[in-house]
């Protein structure tokens, strides 16, 4: 990774394991990222400059008529 590209990364924290996650500055609300430490899928709720807010991805399960 080039030095210039590294400067264009924002940092946030995994809500599950509290690991630091680097995300691109151009990340958009609704994008899905994975925590590099615990592997949890996270949805971007807020992305304004260096402020990135994440939430655990809610996966809806099929009930198969139960």
Structure, explained:
The chain has 66 residues and is mainly beta. It has a single domain, classed as Rubrerythrin, domain 2, CATH 2.20.28. The chain has 1 helix and 5 strands. The protein is elongated and about 45 Å long. The relative contact order is 0.23.
Sheet having the most strands? 3 strands, antiparallel
Query: In CATH terms, what is the architecture?
Result: Single Sheet
- Write down the CATH class: Mainly Beta
CATH fold category name? Rubrerythrin, domain 2
Low-confidence stretches: none
Q: How many H/I helices?
A: 1
Using only C-alpha atoms, the radius of gyration works out to: 14 Å
Structural class: mainly beta
Give the overall pLDDT as a whole number.
83
Question: What shape does the CA trace take?
Answer: elongated
State the total count of DSSP E strands: 5
How do the strands line up in the largest sheet? Answer: 3-4-5
- How many structural domains in the coordinates? 1
| Straight-line N-to-C gap | 50 Å
């Amino acid at each position: 990774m080039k030095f210039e590209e590294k400067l264009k990364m924002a940092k946030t924290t995994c809500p599950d394991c509290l690991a630091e996650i680097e995300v691109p500055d151009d990340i958009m609300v609704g994008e899905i990222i994975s925590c590099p430490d615990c592997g949890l899928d996270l949805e971007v709720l807020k992305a304004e400059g260096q402020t990135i807010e994440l939430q655990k991805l809610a996966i809806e399960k099929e009930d198969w008529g139960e």
